[in-house]
Each structure stands twice: as C-alpha cells, then as structure tokens.
Design a protein that fits this description.
Length: about 675
C-alpha cells in the first residue's frame, strides 16, 4: 500500500452467485454486471464506448494504455484482451503491438470465485486459467501479470490510495478509461471529484472514458475535471450512459521532479547490455519480448561466472520488521519472479529447482522477536506464517529444535543453470552475445553511446544498460554511486542419511539448501566480506559457514552430517547498498545533480520551480541486487525496460523513488547537505 497507515493485506470480495451465475457483491449490495448478458454489456459500454477498435487502427505508438476502476471478475479485461488479439491478428504489421490494462480492485475475487464466475464464459478459459495460475498474493499494491502481448497491472486496494501511486511518471499516459465500480448510489466514496481530477491528469489529450452510469453527479464531476462528456444510449433496457474525451491540453505538473523517471530519447532499438548474470538475463528477455535489437557484452567466456553462478540459491521475499516499503517491494518481486520462472519452465528452459518452502529458524530471542514483529504486519499466510518447532520440523522434513516462520511458496533454484540456459534460449530468440568483451569506456556521441572494450574495439548503440554486478561503478559516469562489493563463499557439502530428508531451504544466520538431485550435494553459506572483491578460496570462510549452522542450530542430531572437509566451494562478489535495496533506472549525473540541486532544500521550502533531476540520456543501470538478486531481478528488469520505452511501470511511485539510483544524493540535498 501507499504508506504506513494503509492496510498491507487485501480483503477479498464477499459474494453470492445468482441462479444464472451472475456474481452479487455483499459488500456493496450490487451486481457485477447485467443479468441479461454481462459480456455483451461489457463490449457495448466499455469497448465500444471508448471506440477501441477504431482508435487502435489510428494509434501511432507501439502500446495503448487502458485503466479501469474495479477489476471485479475480470470480464471487461477478458473482453478487451480478446478484441486486442483480433485486432493484432487482422493487423499483424500495425505499429500498435502491446496493450497495458491497469485495473484497481478494492475487494478482489478469490481464485475459487473467479473460477465460478468464469464458468459462464468458456471462451475465456485460457485467460481465466492463467489469471488463476498467477493470481497475486493478497498484498495491496501493483501486481503485473502477462497475457501474451497484454500486461495486466492489478492494483489491489482502494483506488483512492492507489491511483496517486501511478505518480508523475504516468501523467498524460493513459489512452482510455473503463469507469466501472458499482452504482454511484451504492459506492459514493469511489465516485469522487479527486478520482475525476486524477483521471484527467493521467489522460493523454484525446483520451476517452466510458461508464455504464448516467448519474448527473458523475457527469458534472467529470466535466468539472475537464472532460467533454456526452450521453449515449445505455446497454439493453438502460436509457443512458456516459462517454467522454479529454479534448484539451494541460501542462504536466511534476510533484517530485528530483525522482522523475527518464525514458529514452530518439530511436529506441539498438540496445547494449553490459553484464552476463541474472540482471542482464531478465533485461535482455524484456527487451526481446518487445522486439528490440539487443547485444550482450560479457567480459567472461560464458554467462553466470560471477555472483549468478552458484549451484543453488534461495528464492523468497526478504521481509523486514522495520521497513514495510522494502518488504512490499520484495513481496511483489517474488510473485513476479515466480510467474516468469514458470514461463521459463513452460518454454523448456531447464534449471533445477525445488518449491517446498523456506523455513526461517528463530535460533535466538532476537530473531524470534523479529519474526513476531513481521507476523504482526499481517502478511498473507502463503507469504509468511509463524510456526512452532513441530510444525517447522514437519514442513522442512528434518528435525529442528526451534520455532520459526515458514514461507510456503518459497524455494530454491540453480542460478548458474538458469542464467546459462536462459541466455542460450534468448540467443535462439535473436539476442546477440559477445563474450570475452570487457567494456572499459562509455563515450556519448551525437545520438549514440560508443562502447570501447579492453582491446580498443568500438561499438555503437542507442541505449546502454549497465548490469555488470559489482563492477557497475567502474565507469566515470557511475563512479560516485554509493555501492560496494561483498564477497561471498558458499560451501558445497555431500548429503547424508538425515540431511537428504530436508525439503525446504533452511535459513538461520546463513542458509542450507535441500540436496540437488544430480550431485546429491547441499549448499551452505554464505560468507559476507564487505568491500572485498577477491575471489580466491578461503579456508576460514569455509569453516565459518559450518560454524554458523553448528552454533545456530546446536542440538539437532543431523548436524553431525555437515561435512565441509572436501573444501568444495564457490566464490562470488555481490554488489550492495546500505539500504539493502537495489538501484534501477537512468544513470544520474553526479556533477550536474550537485550543481543544479545545490539549493534544492531552499527551492523546496520556498515552493520555487525545481527542474527535473539530471541523468545521462539513454544510459541505464540495474544493479546492487545484494543477496536477493534471484527474487528481485525479473521485476526490476521489467520496470527498467518499461521506463526506457515510456510504458506503464509495474511498481508504485513510493517504491520507484526508493529504487532510484540518485536516492542517496537526493536525500542529502533535501536536507540541505551539499554533494561533494
Ligand atoms: P553478476 O551475476 O555478478 O553478473 C555481472 C556480470 O557482468 C558478469 O557476468 C561479468 O562478466 C559481467 N561484467 C562485469 N563487468 C563487465 C564489463 N566491464 N564488461 C563486460 N562484462 C562485465 N541471491 C539470491 O537471491 N538467493 C541466494 O541464495 C543468494 N546466495 C548468494 C550467495 C553468494 C555466495 C553470492 C555471491 C550471491 C548470492 N546471491 C543470492 C546474490 C545473487 O547471486 C546476486 O544478487 C545476483 O547474482 C547478481 O546478479 P548480477 O547480474 O547483478 O551480477
Ligand atoms: N469490471 C468488473 C468486471 O469486469 O467484472 C466489474 C466491476 S464491479 C461492477 C465494481 C468493482 O469495483 C468491484 O469489484 C468492487 O470491489 C470495485 N470497487 C468498488 N469500489 C472500489 C474502490 N474504491 N477501489 C477499487 N475498487 C473498487
């Protein structure tokens, strides 16, 4: 949700189904759609009311954005996806390729309720199955789901809290509105002037809206906000409904210019990614999905040779007892990562994995207290659940001697396999890869970036994405970012009679993974050596890895099977920030930020105009994934590529600000401290 006072978890819809299977809301005492023919009503009111087919024909951009108040059963969404697919089939070479459907829902259906409601519409069986398969955790905020060429941003929570979270970035970016949301008489809180005013600010000039209601208060509110409103014949027996247009142009008023997200300028096509780990894998995937031309430059002879090259890694949301914003980011990222990994699996990209949960051991009072505080935040139980010792032992398959918490949907995967096989797949989809290419310089040309490698070879690209792990600060443009390397050694140990029963990842002041099947070994780790990028084996860290588990879980009889003596280990270097949150976005210009925002504190205090933050045009980065890159990389990559292309972003403004690479500098400047 948007801030500390808003609820974290979502309340589900309370429904009954009529004899004809039309859902009825008990919370609003109203039906979701016409009992005569819900689908025909949806097509008439919202699709035709916005004149979608004709507008798509005339659209001169690669994407079109619809926003809806009230996702309900998703019927409007399905009807719209179906129409868009027909449009795409009939116009395969049309510039318009992608649809963004942003829908706000205060009381989402449960997957069971969706299944029941969708029985009436067998033509949507495939869409319904995908929606249920990837249905988000009941956490308020934005959840992005992909349906081929259509992306659905399902915002759980009250639209009054969430619409402002589209933020400055979405000003003048929405093409059409489906103004649904029960009769104004049954739901007066939603139909507010604030809603209409925000709708207007987020609308492009020429954007349209349609709504089933003809209530005069709604008409007047929309007119007062600036829309031109017309009455049309309503669906079936209904006399009237409202449609309208934003026919005027308004000035964009950025409220938070110092964090303004910058899209690429000029031609967006010829993209270079510098990297070779999980961050570059997902960035390349997101670019290729949009038909962009991408080249990967990797200094190693193959992908996944640094941090992303471990045999096993844990995948779960990092929930914190004191920073709900960070926790929410990891919760959304976790849901998104699982969706993309499932798609990889279906595309037969092979990587070993196990999804039998993550058990967090409360190995001392402090950890126990922390887990209780997280539990008090009331996360949905499939994301976080306190357990006693017996439950935790049963769930993890191995005898434990402490209470703890369980993340039922968490698990582990093989990062090296994922990244190497993922890149091999992307190469088949058109990705160009250049291995053994250490990029040492980035020089801006008139319209391009020139990359120079260690042999002096030069390459030209419109856009460059830096996803090169802890070396991201090696360029003059990024040298001032407050990032640091953290060396880590993870030990591989053989399985044992009892150890082999471990089903879930076990977390303590380290972690132990279940056995991987081909090699019958577990990973145990990992050390954290801040400001160290050395990658040689350390006997001391090997011993540390064993000592941690022996001390933390003292008394468990299977600990005798922990055997590090073969000295099998893998060393990688993470890239971290103090806030334990990644950085993603355009590369901020340090010297210009220091100069132009020298007086930011006073400008803000005196409410004087503030220019947008300075960035290097068409130079982006995704990094500082710390110890959670497997969870965060997919959502960050999607967000980055959307930002480059000016598409809607799958995260709320509060989280985007927290991810902005300039955040540490801006925080100082906002307090009146100059940058040095
Ligand atoms: P990297 O994987 O380091 O990739 C950087 C790439 O950039 C490399 O391929 C390198 O060749 C290339 N490169 C660098 N500079 C240049 C250049 N100038 N030109 C060309 N190429 C360049 N995360 C989890 O989610 N769960 C875990 O359980 C987990 N355990 C971990 C254990 C250890 C020991 C370590 C080290 C990390 C662990 N992590 C874990 C963190 C996770 O692995 C990282 O967050 C993630 O791999 C970072 O990916 P990346 O793509 O940003 O960087
Ligand atoms: N468009 C839906 C469909 O295709 O099934 C039907 C929408 S139904 C008539 C109205 C929806 O608006 C309900 O699901 C309701 O929970 C939701 N809603 C009502 N008030 C809301 C609010 N303040 N914020 C977000 N959603 C709201």
């Amino acid at each position: 949700m948007t801030n500390k006072n808003k609820p974290l978890t979502t309340d589900f819809a309370q429904l009954k189904f009529n004899l004809d299977n039309t859902p009825v809301s008990l919370q609003f005492d109203d039906i979701y759609f016409s009992v005569q023919d819900g689908l025909a009503e949806s097509r008439y009111v919202f699709l035709q009311g916005n004149n979608l087919l004709q507008r798509w024909q005339q659209h001169r951009q690669p994407h079109f954005v619809i926003a809806e108040s009230g996702f309900g059963s998703g019927l409007n969404f399905f009807a719209c996806v179906q129409l868009f697919r027909q449009f795409r089939q009939q116009n395969p070479n049309h510039l318009l390729q992608r649809l963004y459907f942003i829908s706000f829902e205060k009381y989402p259906f449960t997957p069971q309720q969706l299944q029941q409601a969708h029985r009436t519409y067998p033509e949507f069986a495939e869409l319904s199955a995908r929606l249920q398969q990837h249905y988000p955790f009941a956490v308020n905020g934005c959840h992005r789901l992909h349906f081929g060429e259509t992306a659905l941003d399902l915002w759980f929570g009250d639209i009054r809290d969430n619409l402002p979270q589209l933020g400055d970035y979405m000003l003048q970016k929405i093409d059409a509105w489906f103004l649904d949301g029960f009769a104004p008489s049954k739901n007066p809180q939603m139909w507010s002037d604030e809603l209409y005013q925000l709708m207007f600010r987020y609308s492009k000039t020429g954007a349209t809206f349609a709504t089933f209601t003809a209530a005069s208060a709604v008409r007047k509110g929309l007119e007062a906000a600036g829309f031109t409103v017309v009455k049309q014949k309503g669906f079936a027996h209904k006399r009237e409904m409202l449609c309208g247009t934003k026919s005027t142009h308004d000035e964009k008023q950025n409220k938070i210019p110092w964090y303004q997200a910058q899209s690429a300028v000029g031609e967006v096509n010829n993209i270079a990614i510098i990297g070779g780990g999980v961050a570059s894998l997902f960035t390349a995937l997101c670019c290729l999905k949009r038909g962009l031309n991408v080249t990967l430059y990797c200094e190693d002879p193959q992908p996944a040779m640094n941090a992303s090259g471990n045999k096993q890694g844990a995948l779960y949301p990092q929930l914190s007892d004191d920073d709900l914003r960070n926790s929410r980011f990891y919760a959304y990222a976790f849901g998104y990562a699982k969706q993309l990994l499932q798609d990889f699996f279906e595309q037969k990209i092979e990587f070993e994995s196990g999804w039998q949960g993550v058990a967090i051991c409360a190995y001392n009072c402090k950890v126990k207290q922390k887990l209780e505080q997280i539990s008090a935040q009331q996360w949905p139980t499939d994301l976080f659940q306190l357990c006693d010792q017996n439950q935790l032992s049963r769930l993890s398959g191995i005898e434990l001697n402490c209470d703890g918490a369980f993340i039922a949907k968490g698990g582990w995967l093989a990062p090296q396999q994922l990244v190497q096989n993922g890149f091999a797949y992307l190469q088949k989809c058109g990705l160009k890869v250049r291995f053994n290419q250490a990029i040492t310089e980035l020089n801006p040309n008139a319209n391009n970036w020139q990359l120079i490698n260690s042999q002096g070879d030069k390459f030209e690209h419109n856009i460059v994405v830096l996803a090169n792990g802890y070396q991201i600060t090696q360029f003059p443009q990024t040298a001032k970012l407050p990032l640091y390397p953290v060396r880590g050694q993870v030990s591989q140990i053989p399985t044992g009679e009892q150890l082999k029963n471990l089903k879930s990842v076990l977390c303590f002041d380290g972690y132990l993974t279940p056995a991987d099947l081909p090699q019958k070994s577990h990973c145990i780790g990992a050390s954290h050596m801040r400001n160290c990028a050395d990658r040689t084996f350390s006997l001391e860290e090997q011993q540390q890895n064993a000592d941690k588990i022996l001390q933390n879980l003292q008394g468990c009889n299977w600990l005798t099977e922990i055997d590090i003596s073969a000295n099998r280990a893998r060393i990688g270097v993470r890239c971290s920030t103090r806030e334990r949150l990644p950085i993603m976005g355009a590369v901020p210009h340090f010297e210009q930020t220091a100069e132009q925002y020298r007086n930011l504190f006073n400008l803000r205090r005196r409410r004087q105009p503030i220019p947008p933050a300075p960035y290097y045009p068409n130079l982006y980065l995704l990094g500082a994934l710390g110890s959670r890159g497997l969870t965060s990389a997919p959502l960050l990559a999607e967000t980055l590529v959307c930002q480059m292309l000016g598409e809607p972003l799958p995260l709320g403004e509060d989280i985007l600000h927290a991810l902005n690479p300039n955040r540490t500098w801006i925080r100082k400047l906002l307090k009146g401290t100059p940058l040095t």
